[in-house]
Amino acid sequence: MASKSPLADKLKDVRDRIARAAAKAKRDPAEVTLVAVTKYAAPEVIRELIKLGVGDLAENRVQQLAQRSPQISEFHQRLLSSKDEGVAPRLRWHLIGHLQRNKAKQALPLVQLIHTVDSLRLAEELDAALEKVGPRADGPTKKFPILVQVNASEESQKSGVAVGATLHLAEQIATMPNLQVAGLMTMTAMDASEAECRQVFSRTRELFEELKWHKIGGAGLRHLSMGMSQDYEWAIEEGATLVRVGSALFGGKPEGDSSEED
Ligand SMILES: *Cc1c(COP(=O)(O)O)cnc(C)c1O
User: Fold this and answer.
1) pTM of the model
2) Which residues, judged by CB distance below 6 Å to any ligand atom, belong to the binding site of ligand 1?
3) Nearest alpha carbon, ligand 1 atom 12
4) How many CA atoms lie within 13 A of 176 on its CB side?
């Protein structure tokens, strides 16, 4: 069959790999959501992706989200009303970069899930900001879902809460009136081997099971955000429900860009 576009081909490849990795682990591929990391993608490429049915989009920076999400969301609405076939029925924005406390309030209305809560103070800031805006109309619960970011690779320069402190932090966040502990997020070290990646993922999965055992987050505890372009297949085999894929869809990052977070 003739290829539709380079992006459509890459997306098909990623989806096939997700399905194969899930099958290998005897998991239902529907348990795994592809979150497209659009930080290096041009707006027209993001629009094409939405037409191809991808509805979960992620950015690292609050500023970028604020600039992009209104236009993209409007575009999505127009597609839906034109009944274009194959369009993602829902658009969800994910924040996956480090969140500074002074941007917490600005981030909340722009995203549906924050993957990077790694301190009590940040959680308190979010909870207090939510108190002011009041409950959301669009969420599955009235609480705002967040993931606790775990530094499971134990690299000193990485963000994330230490493995040994994760349970306690999650427990504290779960008592907050406006936040839902929806799961855990982790990242592997750059250039980590397969064995190292798998260890990071399985350690995070074990922590997730521990949270579940302690009933932290209740039925809302559902997500393991693990795996990027280099390692998402292993992450799926180790239990990921959200894979954050950027360069495998859009190509690498632009020359000279070193921004990883806010
Ligand atoms: C950029 C980024 C990704 C995507 O990385 P790729 O290697 O391009 O797939 C995933 N997660 C986080 C936190 C990122 O910053």
Assistant:
1) 0.93
2) 37, 39, 60, 96-97, 187, 228-230, 244-248, 260
3) 96
4) 25
